[in-house]
Amino acid sequence: MEDDEEDEDMSDSSSPPIPYSQKPAPEGSCTTDGFCQAGKDLRLVSLCTEQIDIPAGFLLVGAKSPNLPEHILVCAVDKRFLPDDHGKNALLGFSGNCIGCGERGFRYFTEFSNHINLKLTTQPKKQKHLKYYLVRSSQGVLSKGPLICWKG
Length: 152
Prior knowledge:
The protein is mainly beta. It has helices at 44-47, 109-115, and strands at residues 58-64, 72-78, 96-97, 130-136, 142-147. The longest helix is centred in the last third of the chain and has 7 residues, at 109-115. It has a 5-stranded antiparallel sheet with strand order 3-2-1-4-5.
């Protein structure tokens, strides 16, 4: 069983944060910000008019990348691992799919964030880097919706 604890740094609050270093991408993988390791575009601006098939029980959500502050990356996440409107009732863990290349079954957010080249500077705490629900307008355009309400 993988030991993939995703707790926040427990260091003294007065000490500087310890930078989080991710494993390098496998050789031959795309490492461009905004694209998955298979080289598929994940930016909302590129996907806003695309028809995206997601499995039952999954929602499209947007992640914010520190390296692309002006862009939102589109992700498919099992809604059981997302909080309700009050920031509660999210199951611990993660289940997500890459909407770029279609790879499914990511069980750890660290593994998923590596795949989508979400270059994190701090140890991830759950999937709090997922910031927005994505919604489709009546014209079929996908856009940023309400904030995901993560509570401590």
